[in-house]
Structures are given as C-alpha cells and as structure tokens.
Amino acid sequence: MKTKLMVIIFLFSVFLLSANSDLWEKDGFDSCTSIMVGKLASTDGSVITSHTCDANYRTWVDIVPAKKHKNGEKCKIYKGRLHTGYASDSDGLELLGEIPEVKQTYKFFNTAYPAMNEYQLTMGESTFGGKRELKSDKGIFQIEELQRLALERTKTAREAIKLIGKLIKKYGYCDSGEAITITDKNEVWHMEIVGPGKGKFGGVWAAKRIPDGNVGVAANISRIGEIEYNNPDYFLFSKNVVKQAIKLKLYDPKKDGTFKFWKAYGSTWSKKPFGIRDFWVLSSVAPSLNLKFDADELPFSVKPDKKISVRDVMELFKTTYVGTKYDMRKNLLVEKRKKRGEKNKKVKKEMVISPIATPWMSYDLRKLLNTLKKDAVKRFRPIAVEYCAYHTILQSRSWLPDEIGGVMWLGFDNPAMTPKFPVYAGMDKLDPRLHIGSQKRFTMDSPAWIFRRAGKLAQGRWDKAEKIIKDTLENFEDMVLTGSKKVETDSAKIIKSDPKEAKKILSEFSENIFRLMLEKYRDLGNKFWMYYRFRMR
C-alpha cells in the first residue's frame, strides 16, 4: 500500500511540475479566465461571471458567516492566503497591516479568490501583470483581500468598485496588475487595477461596465481601452488614471493620441488588448461579427448571436480548440494502428492524430517534439488547462430571493474533465470535506485530489478515457441543471414562511450532488489506474 501511494505521489508530481512550467512562459501570464454575461444576453435574465483559477492555489472552501463588530475592532490584512492548506492554516501568512472594522460584515463564500456574498454580489479574477515598473511594495492590499472586503462590506458591483478604489487610495496596492469581474443582480463590471509605480503609494484603476445585452471576457491581458470620463453609468476610474501614466512616462498626450488604459498600463509583452482566449470567446458567441485573430483590437464586449445559458459558459470553459486550426496536436500524425485480424490484410493507410497527443501536452514534451521537428507543435493556450485549481460560474438573479438567486457552480481541476455542483447564497454550511485543501500533501480526503487523480490518469490515456469523461460530464450537467430548477422552485415557495426549511432543501440538493460527484470520480480514478496495469501503451 505504501509503495502504491508513493507511485501515485510521484506520478502526480511529474504531471503537475511539467504543467506548471506553462504558467509564465515568454508571452506573459497564462493563468485565470473569466467570462461575463449581461442580464439581457443570458437565456433566463441571469447576470453571470466566472473564474477558472488556473495555478497552484488553495482548493479548500468555506463559508464565512455574517458578523457584528464592536467599535474599535480591527480587520487584519494578510498576504499568503492563496497557498494555505485549510482555513486555520497560518503557515506562510504575512500580516501586512490593519484597518478599522465595520459594524456589520456580510456572509461570503471563501474560495482562494473570494467569490460570492449573501446579497448575490459575485466576483471572478484574472491576473494581467501590468508593466513591471508599476508594482510597489508600499501598500498593504493584494487583490484577494480587496475582494474579501468588498464581499464583506458591499451589496452591489458599483459599491464594490468604489470601496476598492477608496481602500487602494488610503492603504495602497502592492499586487501585480489584476482584473476582477464583478456582478450583482443587475449589472456586470470589468475592473482593472495596477500599482502606482515602484516605491510609490496608492494605485491606479479603471472599471468598465459590460452592456446588459453583451458578453465580455478577461484572460490575462488588460482589456480596457478608451475611458469616457463623463459617462459614470458605464465607466468608473481613479482620479490619477491619466496623470500617473504621464508622470511615469507611460503615456504622452502629444505623441500617443487618445489615452487607452491597456496601452499605458498593460504588460509590455501584450501588443494587443486580447489573446487567443478572448478572441475565441467573443467570436464563438458572435460568429456573425467575423472577428479576426490578426486584428489590432477586438470589441471590449459583443452582443451574442443567441442568448447564453450557464451550460453554454460550461462549454466555453471546456475549450481546447480540438478540430480547429488552433489545435496544437494537428501536426502529430501517425499511421492508424491496425486492428486484430488486419495485420496481414491490405488495409488503406490512414494517418491520424497520435493517441498520446492531448490538448494538455506539457512544456517539456512540446519542447522535445519541436526539437525533433521544427514547429511540430504550436500551443494556443486553451481555456481548459490541466493545472486548474478550481473553477466557478456565478449567477445573480434579480427575480429570486437572494438565498436562491445567488448560486456558485463550483468544480475542481481541469474544467474539461470535471463537473460542477451548485452552492447557493442561502447556504450556511458546506460538506466538511471541502475544508480540506490539496496544497500541502496528497490525501484522498481532499475533494481536489479525488478529481485531480482521475483527471491526470485520464490525461495519460486520453484515447481511452475521453469518451468516458465526456459522457460523465454530460450526465452530471443534465441531472444537476434539471434538478436545480425544481429545487429552486420548491424553496422559493416557502422561503418567506419557512426560511429554515427552504435553506435545508437547497443545502441537501447541493450536498447530494457533491457526494455523487466524489463517488463517481473516486471510481473513475480507480478505473483509469487499470489502464496502467500492464504497460503505458
């Protein structure tokens, strides 16, 4: 048993280390993706944001309850929460400062990047880095702590943006360039934040609202361009947004023309305000626009050709470009293996993509293949990656009570391989297993490791496992999306007369789906291990 466990840990270490080498290649950040949908662009009137947390971040989740605070209480601001193993883990935490506590804080759902509160305020995140000279060590706030405080202290996207702006100005921002996508029951906003410059205090930010009928995306590149300074319905920004760029010589009004946020503050490697993921999402939902990947700029957001559902966002999260010109396997062709009984027969030669070529080939494997044959593999970064820690799709629905209207669809590991279960804003507790992370050690007590084990073993024999995984995802999505409608209807009928029973209905549904997911993926992991019982191929 001990030997088998060591083999598991070794194999997983190899998989993860090779995958993580992709995170910061020469083209910049290669981590999180967020897709946004306005209420008039969604099939049911939901406002949607989302987040694939694509890096070595914590996977434990808990619910922080609403609290009342006494006068004089302080709120501690930390660095290092993203890499803890469980809620009370203080290893690696660094106290950066304290600020006054408020009288009342709201309940929020505590993922690595805090995601939702009890009033249907939700958030996604995507790092874009920004120019290196912008980062300062003078402030106390990193992005995840700003998200936490916004969820604890505000109820709408506009309130959240304004609070974050005030905190940055008063206490300083010490993180890299970040985008957060913020929704409430009516609006979705895309906010970008950068530091004030090395050794300086404060920060610079701008926020742009996605029109209600549009879809937007954030994928590790600064996207905000021109700012309409007299249009507060769609633009919010720090007072120094242009002045600081001029001061730091990042923008010259005489030479550069109209100020564009991404040009002034975006990373030096990004010559455009979009990459393959931004292009794919926008062109997929609005093919009639005939958008071009070689264009200088793309629209900030687009009106979809047809309205977008939560399931549509789930499908976009599975994107690997398989079967398109961006498929990195397309040149890895081999002669199709003959079946038994065909070896001595004349069978027409057929070239197929190698069964060991997957959409998640590691950096080192791609380098080897490109050394053997120049340009054999060109990687276009998929939305679904094997180094995803967790993924969320967040709905805010104005026509439902907050307890039911706010829902976080939560999954772990590669979103092309693992399903999601609903966590409702009205829930006050989670399955205790969700409190166990995957950062510090391998343990099958951790949900993330159950999904990760199945995913990594499937990836090694994707030719055999692909159909099983796809069928499993489809079955879970059918079951959960259909079941959630009945549960939401039933709980909405009694939420006013019997809120305790309504919350119980929501919690039991969520916990049952989560339990079924764990059982299925534990079994799949065991099944996929059997693919390795004789030889790798």
**What's the β-strand tally?**
23
In spatial order, strands of the major sheet run: 12-13-14-15-17
Q: Give the class from helix and strand content and strand pairing.
A: alpha+beta
Instruction: Name the overall outline.
Output: globular
| Uncertain stretches | 1-27
What is the CA–CA distance across the termini? 24 Å
Number of helices: 13
Main beta-sheet strand count, sense and barrel state: 5 strands, antiparallel
Task: List the defining traits of the structure above.
disordered N terminus, single chain, 537 residues, alpha+beta, five-stranded antiparallel β-sheet, globular, 19% strand, four-stranded antiparallel β-sheet
How would you sum up this structure, described in words?
The protein is of the alpha+beta class. Helices cover 31% and strands 19% of the residues. It has 13 helices and 23 strands. The strands form 8 sheets. Strands 12-13-14-15-17 form a 5-stranded antiparallel beta sheet, with helices on one face. The chain has a 4-stranded antiparallel beta sheet with strand order 4-21-22-23. β13 and β14 form a beta hairpin. α2 crosses α3 and α12 packs antiparallel against α13. The protein is globular, with a radius of gyration of 24 Å. It starts with a helix and ends in an 8-residue tail after the last helix.
Walk me through the topology.
Layout: H1 2-20, E1 24-25, E2 28-29, E3 34-37, E4 47-53, E5 62-64, E6 67-68, E7 74-79, E8 94-100, E9 104-105, E10 108-110, E11 116-117, E12 122-129, H2 143-153, H3 157-171, E13 177-183, E14 188-194, E15 204-210, E16 215-218, E17 235-237, H4 243-247, H5 253-256, H6 261-265, H7 276-285, E18 301-302, H8 310-317, E19 333-335, E20 351-353, H9 363-372, E21 390-396, H10 402-405, E22 407-412, E23 421-424, H11 447-460, H12 462-494, H13 499-529
Helix pairs in contact: 2-3, 11-12, 11-13, 12-13
